[in-house]
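Forgive a beginner's question, but might I ask you for the amino acids of a protein and the tokens describing how it folds?
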Amino acid sequence: MNRQIRRKVIIILTPVLASALLLAVWETWVRVKDVKEYLLPTPSAVLTALIDDPGRYAEGARLSLQAALGGLLLASLGAFILAVAMAHSRALERALYPPALALKVTPVVAVAPLFTIWFGFGLAPKVLIAAMITFFPMLVNSVVGLRSIDPRAHDFMRTINASPWQIFWRLRVPSSLPYVFAGLRISVPLSLIGAVVAEFLSGSAGMGQIILIANGDFDTPALFGAIFVLAALGIVLTSSVALVERRVLFWHHSSVSL
């Protein structure tokens, strides 16, 4: 086994072994202390709940993931388009930043019922809530990235009579990518949170509804099962963004390794 393969094996095994150790300690502690299941179930009880009804969790995960990714895509596209305008005009930035900040500080639980009234109980309000909660990080990171160009490179492109479009596409966009990916790493878990919150308040399905039903039934293993599924989704999505970042930004020191 060469050095590079050994390094990758260590990177993969370290979190797996740490998680296994944590679960073993959890299982042992609950059994030794004889903790009631409705207060804290053992990991084995949670696993049993997942195995007993995998279709329910798979369908809930699909619906929550659909809402989260839809909101993330909508927020990312809208934030980048708005960031382009703000990065080229201080007047537009001063005009648009306060509404964007107001959107950020507005409690999601206060807006979700309105979205339900306006758009019904389907996918639309969940997507909008996920977009609302992820919009501001993407906007701020995109604006900073679009303005973080190297002045010397900018001056050089102007000396060779590069058009504004060429400066934007060949200089501003590549310079913004590390910041955009940083915003994505922040926004991916936020999009899941937004989707679940929307399902709490306006959904008829998804992981949020599984959690609500399990909570009402005092079915703690099922509740923890839903939490574990959401955690797994967040890890997979964040790791996927990191992998794409590593491939796209292989030339930049900020690229992360898995």
The chain is about 85% helix and 0% strand. The CA atoms of residues 122 and 203 lie 7 Å apart. Residues 54-248 form a domain with the MetI-like fold fold (CATH 1.10.3720.10). The chain has one domain: 54-248.
